[in-house]
Structures are given as C-alpha cells and as structure tokens.
Amino acid sequence: MTRWTPGFAECVESCDAGELEGGSRAATLPLMNKLLRACFAVVLGCAFLALGGCLLGPNIVLEGPDGVMAVVLEDDGSYQPLPEGGSLWLLDENGTPLRVLMTLGEERDARPADWDPQGEALLALVTEEGEFGFPEGWKLMLVPLEGEPVELVASEEPIFSARYGLAGDILYSRSRDETVALLSLDPASGEETVLAEDVLAFMGWEQGFYVLGADGILRSADGAELPLQMQCPEDGCDEFLQLWPHVYLDVSPSGRYVAIALEQEPRLVFPEVSAEATLYLVDLEEERATYLAAPAMIPSFSPDGTALAFIGEPPGGPEAVYIYHLAEGRSEALNDSAYAWWVRWVPSGLLIAVEVAWGYELRRWADDTWTVFDLSIP
Predict the structure, then answer these.
(1) Would you say 298 and 81 are in contact if contact means Cβ atoms under 8 Å apart?
(2) What are the structural domains, with CATH classification, of the chain?
(3) What is the pLDDT of residues 276-304, one digit of tens each?
C-alpha cells in the first residue's frame, strides 16, 4: 500500500503514553476538532439536540448542470461554514451572487442537497429552530430557480440526506420508528416507498446508489452485500455518519471505488486493514483497501473518477487539500489551500472554503489556478 506522506500519522506536539505504539493511532484532524467545537450534539436513539448550523453539516457549494451554484450566505453576503439563518443564494458560473432563492431568517437553517437533472430547481434540507436553537422540525424543500419554494416532506424527526434518483424520484434518509430508513419519494404523487431500513448513509453513482447499513455492511440498491464492511462500536459513530456523510464518504462515478474516512474508531474490517489508517480507498471489484493518509477526511472523487481530492494535515502544517491520482498511486498537495474546511469536486473544478484572517473565502481550482469568489451582494 502506498503511503504518500511519510510520518503523516505522527503526533507533532505531544502524545499520550502508548499513543504511537506501533504507529497505530492517528493524530486528530483539526477540522474535526473545529466541527466538534462548533457543534454540541446529544444523541439518544433518534432524538437529536444540537446547536443551530450543525445538524445539516458543512455549508458546501452545490454546482448545477449549467454551471450556476447554490450556497447559504449571511445577510451581508459573507460565507460561514456552519451558518445559522441567512439565505439560500444562487451564484453565477463565476461565483458571483445573483439572487436569493429562499430566505431563512433567524429561525431556520438550510443546506442545498442536489440539483434536478434539468438544472431548473434544487432540493434543500431545512431545519426549523426552537428555543435555544434546538431544532423542532425538519423539511425537504424543492427550491425552483423561478417561483416559490415547495415543501415536499415535513417531519418531527431528522431528515439527513437527499438526492435525485435515476427514475426521477427523490431519495432521502430519515429517522423513522427508532431507526433510520432510506425512502423514495414520487414528487408527482407524494407517495413514499421504503427502500432500506437501519441505514447509516447512502451514496449515489452513475447507475444507482449504495447503502451503508447500521451493521457496517455496504449494499447495492437491490440489497446485495458488497465487499466493504466497517466496525462501528455502540454509540461510537452513527451520529456522525448520518449527519455528515460528505465528511466521511464518497463513491466514484463508476461505482467501483469507495473512499471512506474512519477516525480511530470505527475501523474497516473487510477488506482487512491495519487499525492505523484514517482514509482508505476501497476497490469493490478487486476487494482491496488502500491506505491513503492519516489524518484525512472529506473525500471527493473527480467527475471522471481518475482522482480523489481530500483534506489532510501533514505534521507541523495546517490542514490543506490533496489530490490522489488513482492510476499512479500518488498524492500531491494543492498550493494555497491551507486551512480548508471542505473540498468538493464539480465539473468546473475543485471548490473549497478556506479560513482567512478576515473570515472565509470560497475558491475554485481549475487549470492549475485558484479563483476567489466575489460574494458582494448585488
């Protein structure tokens, strides 16, 4: 297995006794520390208490089929990685704000979830906040580029992820009867169909979707078991995989590869690997797992499936964006990506959010050049 940065799992400042014995424990990625410091969550069964801006995960820019983008911005146009309120904005192909698609105010939070295939509307997950910022309800909304948002699903229990299916239906995961289910929604009739129970996360690819079950086994859309199994100890990782799947998981467009970030526990148990790695690339055809980096997370495959972007932290340096080239088995760091909060590979390039002295910047990397979004409100 190729380890692209020697000593990447070493502690830089200090370690607990025995922490590095055999090189078996990875250092903690500062990004996860930032997320955890920003969020407070108590999980009991399927009842969630969390501060606003956390349940829906990082505020990631979503690019549509025509190149326009959607993201939540504050009232002054500034970007926050874990916003509370503000508005869902439409950005042009250059990242310049065009207009508000949905106003959230102080008692709602939202994240864009997926564009429809025609690029005429997008799905958004919305939380309704009550006292002390605790959520009192969840909604799945259809937000058209022209017209008013439409409520598709309302629930008193958490709605976690949503995307369009191949048949024009809408796939989404939701707490249901003390478990989490994957459902299919017919947007025309409003009819729901349960596709899977006991779900941690689901991932879409060009010809379908995969489901990661609460038992740690990855399955195809027809329920067939795939050669990937992870170990999730009781009360250990369910809330993170359900709430923030983009932080930990991605699947290549062909469906052959799965990138999975596991921080200490849980760990991958099939294909068998050592306990020290954080980010793995799993080849479902050859049933092989390749160690990529530790600590590292937020994997994102390129649209052509030849490369994987992720955020990692080298010893003594800040977290930054790296690209792993599958055919060559090597990784490279991207310049000027230090202090990145997330990375997302889209047809127009790599999108990232970076912490800077005056706040946060949204940037796109294309043709070996970074472009900073001008978020000035029109």
Answers:
(1) no
(2) 23-365 (2.120.10.30)
(3) 447 999 999 999 999 898 888 899 999 99
